[in-house]
Amino acid sequence: MGTRITVHVTPRAGRDEIGGWRGDELQVRVTAPPEGGKANAATCELLAEALRAPKSTVRVVRGETSRHKLVDLHGVGASEVKAAFGEPDAPLF
After folding, report:
1. Which of 14, 32, 63, 67 could bond 38 through an S-S bridge, CB–CB 3.0 to 4.6 Å?
2. Angstrom distances, CA of residue 85 to CA of 35, 81, 90
3. pLDDT tens digits for 42-80?
4. What is the mean pLDDT of residues 69-93?
5. Which helix (H) or strand (E) element contains residue 85?
6. How high is the pLDDT of residue 2?
């Protein structure tokens, strides 16, 4: 059991960072290029670090080749997401 969130990823950014919510999407910028799943892996690692969870708990379930992704946070509850990233601008759950 876990939580799913929508994420907008910007690859090849100047630095790895979580930019906060824009609507119901969490803005994530990673320095990794989009080739070979590197940006997806960097996104999962950044989210796991922010949630203080193991990397294995975060995975992209939809949008592997898109900037707009659905990410599964296995074992992470809505309250933990809100504590780490704040309240989304639109209903999340």
Report:
1. 32
2. 27, 6, 13
3. 999 999 999 999 999 999 999 999 999 999 999 999 999
4. 88
5. helix 78-85
6. 85
pLDDT of residue 91: 63
- The single residue listed with the structure tokens 């979580």 is 18
27 with 36: CB under 8 angstroms? no
Q: What is the maximum alpha-carbon separation in the chain? A: 34
Give the E-state strand segments of the chain in sequence order. 2-10, 17-22, 25-29, 58-62, 68-74
At residue 67, what is the residue type? R
Among 28, 1, 24, residue whose Cα is nearest residue 15: 28
